[in-house]
Each structure stands twice: as structure tokens, then as C-alpha cells.
From TrEMBL:
Keywords: Membrane, Transmembrane, Transmembrane helix. The keyword Membrane applies. Residues 137-569 form the TRAP C4-dicarboxylate transport system permease DctM subunit domain. Signal peptide: none annotated. This is C4-dicarboxylate ABC transporter. The chain crosses the membrane at residues 29-51, 63-81, 93-113, 125-143, 150-174, 194-217, 281-309, 315-340, 424-447, 453-477, 484-506, 512-535, 547-566, 572-589.
């Protein structure tokens, strides 16, 4: 068994996979049985999903339950009881983890041993079915505590208790109680509850996209994206910050993870931003905001986007297209803000000689972009996300081998498969536990009552319902993942919004956006805190500046609720008007908050530009026209004044 020192050594070298770490040890891989088992289990999970994607989906219950069993066993090993990390020396609690693993495997064997008989017992459960289902619920809540946190455990437990003892509750939570037989039948025996839509989407689509991202990063795409962004924007005013926005847009659109993207691109861009004069907390905030935008940026949006498609029963491409322009507007707003900040502080630029050469970078890694095009083309043609993700994985393996700089060794490929499986653990657990919440809401009938109450409290006023939904999302987002927040609101709140006349895609995206802004919203702003660690800045100060820089993400949800043309709802001319107005409106809003255009502007122009932003966001062609007239007039007057002062030449050159 590896010594404690060597385990600490592995913790310090996290860029290595477990497989790479074992191969680097002198004793050989068989000297580390626990590490070897985790590695093989992770590889097995990835290979299992690749096989299913190639051969076709298995029976629904068998496929989803096997996925969850893999994930739960991995979780018990990776997040052991009573230890800070699985690399720490074993303690007396290790036996409990082994017991939990044994129970998980036993329940899965029991489920699959005679699957036909298991399915036929739905509605007529045996005592053993109830014991197995109850045990699985307890085990699932335990792994949720380990990888997601107490918040989701408490919420899931509340709904379980409320469904069982609703006659002891009050207000909308009061109602006829459901017996444990009914709850287990719905949550455990059927493809609802634990094995419902969230876990189905995770096992079918999301896992493959996480795997694709892991392989893409291993091929050197992360560094390639950063270098391309630096080559394009690095020599301009605020170049490293702009490169952070561009590279994060490229990288996070594939990975879909805000914190992971902060660590990947931020370790390079944040020191560069600090070097040219950006304050540490501002540099961290830029990276956090840009990285968190990956979850809203097509073609591979965050995991919740796939769940949206399933809940709405529409192709994923429909959701991706709806989210395209709001995402571009969001990144545009950050880009403008970092430019204004650089101008206000008169920051230095990075010499061209220190930057990567764009032609050389494209020659070295440009072919990797084809794998992303494979996803887009296959989904546009009409293939499923599972099919598109599988062939994207195959394409990146083939494409990376075409050039020496991106060619992966067999060890690197297996390491990517291992890492992808481990990255999927927390998302899978969150999806399974979210299924408990959805199942309980359905069994108790709470969802319909919640919708009625929201409509009643709002008094028919949509803005009140939206504000309530916003605060609910922000509060839930402090303790839950984006996917879990969205799923909870999809069951409780979104029906109320659609009942009040909100376009379905706008209602779903509204909850989706406010579920993910928790990554940059204090007091729990994980992406901001991760960026602060790299920047060496105060975490809360970085969080509050992230909130300011990411203001567009708080405003855009209200925009596409009241002006759904921006998410492709309506005639083409309304869509064009909404999108153009969205870009102009967010620019006007940025001028209002930052007090800068070509040079510093006074409060009069800032207030007028604030009015322009409101007019641009309003879904009326007349207000759009008035807004455009004011916008153009102010821009021309400001341009002429700047030209007279001789500052325009340097601004254009930047």
C-alpha cells in the first residue's frame, strides 16, 4: 500500500490521473490495490457508456440503475467517511464504507437478477422490494451529503417526510399522507423518482459530453484555446482580460463547469491580467464571470440544458439555439467592461513579441475545432445528443492523432476516460437526488398547489412571480448544483410562470439562469472564490466584483421573459430587432454602470443610456425605435466631442 507521503505527493500532483500516478511509482500498480480499483472502476464506467452509445440503449431501468450503482460505489471510495480525502490513511470508518459499497452492489444485483419479475411487481411490492428501496434511499442521501452537501440532503429529506406525513403539516404542505409502499413504488421501482428524467439525461447525454470535454482537454485543447485568444486580443488594451473572456467562452462551452474552467484558464490569464495592472480582485472577477458563462454557451451548455430539453420534450438543439444570443450578449457585456476598466486605469498592453502567433497556433491545434463541429452538424441534421457526443469523442481521438503536438498516448487516453468518469460523480448524484424531490412532489400533489399559491401571491402580476422565482433560485443555488436548482424549480415554479403567459422556453431558461448565477453571487460564489485563490485576492471582494461584472446574467432572464424574441420565439423581424436591441441595450447599461464610452462620461449621459437600455429591452418596436435614435445621437455627439479632444485615434487603435 502507498505510504502517506506518496499519497500527499499525489494530492500535490493533481494534474496526473490516478493511472499516471501509479505508473510513475517504483513499486508498480499492483502495490496500490485501492487506487487500482478506483481506476478500473472509473474506466469501466466510461467504457460502459461508450458501449451503450455505440450499441444502443439498454432497458431503461437496467441502464440507469447500473449507472447509479457505478457512481455510488465510486463516491464511497473517493469521498470516504471520516477522512478528508481518499488518499488519506485508512481509519476505522473504512469498514463502514465497505459495508455501504456491499449494500449498493447487492441492491443492484437484486434489481437485475430477474429484471422482468422486478418490473412486473410494480404496484405489488414484496417486503424485500421495500427494504431494498429504503436502503437505496438512505445510501443515496449519504453519497449526496458527501459530494453535494447537506443542503440537498435536507431538501430531499423534507419532501420525503412531507409526502409521508402531510397531514401533520400546514398551508400548502398540508394534505392526505402517502404510505411508504406508494413512495418506494414510485421512487425505486419505476422509471420515475430516482431513475427519472434527471438521471436519464445524465446517463444518456451528459456523461458522454463530460467525457468528451475530458478527452478534449487531454489533447491540449485548453492551452490551444488560451493561446488563440491571446493571439487575437493579447496586444490590445486590456488584452489578457479580453483573452480570458474569449478563452473561457471557448473552453467552458465544452466543459460546462465554471470552477473547472477557472482553474484551467485562470491559472494563465489571471497572472497576466495582474501583470499589466488589473487589480487582483478584478482579475479574479473577470475570470469567474467568463468561466461561469460556459454553462449558458452552446454547443455544449451546462448539464441542466439537456434536462430542459427533456422536460420540454424538444430537441436539445432547440434549447441551444434559444440560449445562443443571450450567451453572446453576456460575454459581450464582460468584454466591454474589461475594456472600459483598462481605459479608465490606462493599463499597459502586452508586447506582440510575447504573444503566441495565431497562424502557428491554428496550424498546431486548429483541427481540434472539427470535433466541436461534429457535435453541431450531427444535432442540426437530427441525430440525438448521445449519437453526436459518441462520434465527437471518436473524432477527437482520430483528429488529435493527426499532429504530433496533440497526439495522445494510450495512457493519456485511458487517463481521460478515468478523469471523465470521476468528474461525472457529483452531477450524477445530484440528478438522482433531484429525482427524489420530483417524485415526492408528484406523489403528494404539492406541485399543483405550489403553482396555485405562486399565482395567488403574485396577484396576477408577472413581475412579482419572477422576483419570487429569482430569490428562490438564488437561495437554492447557495447549496445546490445548477442542475438540482433547475429541476426543483421545474417541478414547483415554472408551471406557474407558464400559466401566467410566459413562453415555455423563456420560463425554463429563467430558472436555469438564476440557478447558475450562484457561482458568482456572494455569499456562496464558488467560481469567484476559486478565482480569488489564484489571484491572491480577498474572496468576498472578488465575489462582489463578480456580481457587478456579471450584471447581464441577472438582467437577461427578465429580458427574454418580457421579450421572448431574443430566444427565437416569434417572427424573424422580431428576433432580429430583439437581438440587435439586446446587444445595444447591454452596451448602454454598461455605460451607465461604468461611466465610460470613448472617454469618461458624466451622470447625464449615464442616466440617458440607462433609459436607452430599458427601451431596448422592452418588447415593442416603437420603444426600440426611440431607444435606437437616442443611442445613435448620444454616440455621435460623444464621438465628435472625443474627436475634438484628440482621444479618438488612440481609442480606435486599441
Amino acid at each position: 500500500m502507498a505510504t502517506q507521503e506518496k499519497k500527499i505527493q499525489y494530492e500535490e500532483g493533481k494534474k496526473q490521473s490516478i493511472l499516471e500516478w501509479m505508473l510513475a511509482q517504483k513499486k508498480g500498480v499492483f502495490a496500490y490495490p485501492l487506487e487500482l480499483f478506483i481506476c478500473l472502476l472509473s474506466l469501466g464506467l466510461s467504457v460502459y457508456h461508450l458501449y451503450v452509445a455505440y450499441a444502443g440503449s439498454l432497458e431503461a431501468h437496467a441502464f440507469r440503475s447500473t449507472h447509479l450503482a457505478f457512481v455510488m460505489v465510486l463516491c464511497f471510495l473517493l469521498r470516504p467517511l471520516g477522512r478528508a480525502s481518499w488518499t488519506a490513511p485508512k481509519n476505522a470508518w473504512f469498514g463502514v464504507d465497505l459495508l455501504f459499497i456491499g449494500l449498493t452492489i447487492a441492491i443492484q444485483v437484486y434489481t437485475l437478477w430477474d429484471l422482468d419479475s422486478f418490473i412486473l411487481r410494480r404496484g405489488d411490492l414484496s417486503d424485500l422490494d421495500i427494504y431494498a428501496g429504503t436502503t437505496l434511499l438512505i445510501l443515496l442521501l449519504e453519497v449526496t451529503r458527501r459530494v453535494v452537501g447537506w443542503a440537498m440532503v435536507i431538501i430531499a429529506a423534507f419532501f420525503l417526510v412531507q409526502t409521508s406525513f402531510s397531514d401533520h403539516f400546514f398551508w400548502i404542505f398540508y394534505g392526505p399522507p402517502s404510505d411508504w409502499f406508494t413512495i418506494i413504488d414510485y421512487l425505486f421501482m419505476r422509471e420515475n423518482g430516482i431513475y427519472g428524467i434527471p438521471l436519464m439525461v445524465m446517463a444518456t447525454y451528459i456523461f458522454l459530453f463530460i467525457l468528451f470535454g475530458a478527452i478534449l482537454v487531454r489533447s491540449g485543447a485548453g492551452r490551444f484555446f488560451i493561446n488563440v485568444a491571446m493571439a487575437i486580443t493579447g496586444s490590445r488594451v486590456g488584452g489578457p482580460a479580453k483573452a480570458s473572456v474569449v478563452s473561457s467562452c471557448l473552453m467552458a462551452s465544452v466543459s460546462g463547469s465554471a470552477v473547472a474552467n477557472v482553474v484551467t484558464t485562470g491559472s494563465f490569464t489571471i497572472p497576466l491580467m495582474k501583470r499589466i495592472g488589473y487589480r487582483p480582485y478584478f482579475a479574479g472577477a473577470v475570470e469567474a464571470c467568463a468561466s461561469s458563462g460556459g454553462q449558458i454557451m452552446p454547443p455544449v451548455m451546462g448539464a441542466a440544458a439537456f434536462v430542459i430539453a427533456e422536460f420540454m420534450n424538444v430537441p436539445y438543439l432547440y434549447v441551444a439555439l434559444a440560449g445562443l444570443f443571450p450567451a453572446l450578449i453576456y460575454f459581450f457585456s464582460i468584454f466591454v467592461m474589461v475594456h472600459f476598466e483598462a481605459r479608465k486605469k490606462n493599463l499597459a498592453t502586452v508586447p506582440r513579441s510575447e504573444l503566441p502567433n495565431l497562424k502557428e497556433e491554428l496550424k498546431r491545434g486548429g483541427h481540434l475545432f472539427i470535433s466541436i463541429l461534429v457535435i453541431v452538424v450531427l444535432m442540426v441534421v437530427g441525430y440525438t445528443p448521445m449519437f453526436a457526443a459518441f462520434w465527437a469523442i471518436i473524432s477527437i481521438l482520430v483528429l488529435s492523432a493527426l499532429r504530433k503536438e496533440t497526439r495522445m498516448t494510450p495512457v493519456q487516453i485511458f487517463s481521460a476516460l478515468e478523469e471523465g468518469a470521476r468528474q461525472a460523480v457529483s452531477v450524477s448524484v445530484a440528478c438522482a437526488t433531484a429525482g427524489i424531490i420530483i417524485g415526492c412532489v408528484f406523489v403528494s400533489g404539492l406541485g399543483l398547489k405550489f403553482t396555485t399559491v405562486i399565482v395567488s401571491i403574485a396577484g396576477g402580476e408577472l413581475w412579482i412571480a419572477l422576483v419570487l422565482t429569482m430569490f428562490a433560485s438564488l437561495i437554492l443555488g447557495m447549496g445546490l448544483t445548477t442542475t438540482a436548482v433547475y429541476i426543483t424549480l421545474a417541478a414547483l415554479v415554472i408551471p406557474a410562470l407558464t400559466q401566467m403567459g410566459v413562453a415555455p422556453i423563456a420560463a425554463h431558461l429563467f430558472a436555469f439562469y438564476f440557478g447558475l448565477v450562484s457561482a458568482i453571487t456572494p455569499p456562496v460564489a464558488l467560481a469567484s472564490f476559486a478565482a480569488a485563490g489564484i489571484a491572491g485576492s480577498n474572496p468576498m471582494q472578488t465575489g462582489f466584483h463578480s456580481f457587478r461584472l456579471g450584471i447581464a446574467k441577472y438582467i437577461l432572464p427578465f429580458v427574454f421573459v418580457y421579450n421572448p424574441a431574443i430566444v427565437f420565439v416569434g417572427d424573424w423581424y422580431h428576433v432580429v430587432s430583439a437581438v440587435a436591441g439586446g446587444f445595444a441595450g447591454i452596451y448602454a447599461l454598461t455605460v451607465t454602470t461604468e461611466g465610460w464610452m470613448l472617454k469618461r462620461v458624466g451622470w447625464a449621459i449615464r442616466l440617458v443610456m440607462g433609459v436607452v437600455a430599458l427601451m431596448m429591452f422592452h418588447p415593442d418596436l416603437l420603444t426600440d425605435l426611440i431607444g435606437w435614435i437616442l443611442f445613435v445621437v448620444i454616440m455621435i455627439l460623444h464621438w465628435r466631442q472625443t474627436k475634438r479632444e484628440g482621444a479618438l485615434v488612440t481609442e480606435v487603435a486599441a
